[in-house]
Design brief:
Number of helices: 1
Structural class: alpha+beta
Helix content: 25-40%
Number of strands: 3
Distance between the termini: 29 Å
Length: about 55
């Protein structure tokens, strides 16, 4: 999915699910969004974390 769409989805999921969501760049240049605890890929591919509990 495009970056802008992924960013919007990531923030929405973080606020809805009240969990940390990560935005990752895939090997083919697209972006994906998933909960941090489900991500088991290369940490270098993480573009941004969306934390609903700011410190």
């Amino acid at each position: 999915m495009p970056l802008k769409t992924a960013q919007s989805l990531a923030w929405n999921l973080a606020k809805t699910l009240m969990t940390v969501i990560v935005l990752v760049r895939t090997d083919n240049g697209n972006y994906a969004v998933m909960p941090w605890n489900e991500f088991d890929g290369n940490p270098a591919n993480v573009v941004r974390e969306y934390d609903p509990f700011p410190s």
